[in-house]
Amino acid sequence: MIKFNELKPGDYVYAQYEGELWEGIVNELNAEDKEVCVQTEVQDFWFKPEDLKPIPLSEDQLVKLNFEKEVMGQGGVKYKKGPFRIQLPSEGAFDDFEIWYREDRRHIKHPINVHELQNHYYAMTKVELGRN
User: Fold this and answer.
1) What is the pLDDT of residues 10-46, one digit of tens each?
2) What is the C-alpha separation between 132 and 118, in angstroms, rounded?
């Protein structure tokens, strides 16, 4: 489950319907009824937050978000999108890494999900992080 207040339009999530998970993008939020409109490959549909699951951040997800990978010395990995950077101390170490944009630098000490990265990215750059 994802907390309703963590979601913003444009966030990528899994929506669960009849036991199946569909990857989709949040289109709209209904604060009054605590419902989330998610666009999947099938259609737009309204879900309760308990029917939404986070997408774990991984290299595959960063590639989908158009980040470029750069292998650093001593096993480190850097992902770049314009001036925004994600630096891991080793391949796949998404549980202790740094993100930065210009002078704003953040150390993340736990695994995060794609929608959380999108929210950090927006807070730091004032630009939506999408797949186009």
Assistant:
1) 999 999 988 899 999 999 999 999 999 999 988 899 9
2) 14
Q: Report the sign of the C-alpha dihedral through residues 97, 80, 123, 55, in that order.
A: negative
Tokens of 127: 């630009």
**φ, ψ dihedrals at 34, nearest 5°:** 50, 55
pLDDT tens, position by position, 45-66? 999 999 999 999 999 999 999 9
**Beta-carbon contacts of residue 5 (< 8 Å; ≥ 6 apart):** none
Spatial neighbors of 55 by CB under 8 A, at least 6 apart, are 12, 13, 14, 23, 61, 113, 114, 115
Q: What is the DSSP string of 59-118?
A: HHHHHHTTPEEEEPGGG-EEEEETTEEEEESSTT-TTSEEEEETTEEEEE-S--BHHHHH
Q: Domains plus CATH for the chain?
A: 4-53 (2.30.30.140), 59-125 (no CATH)
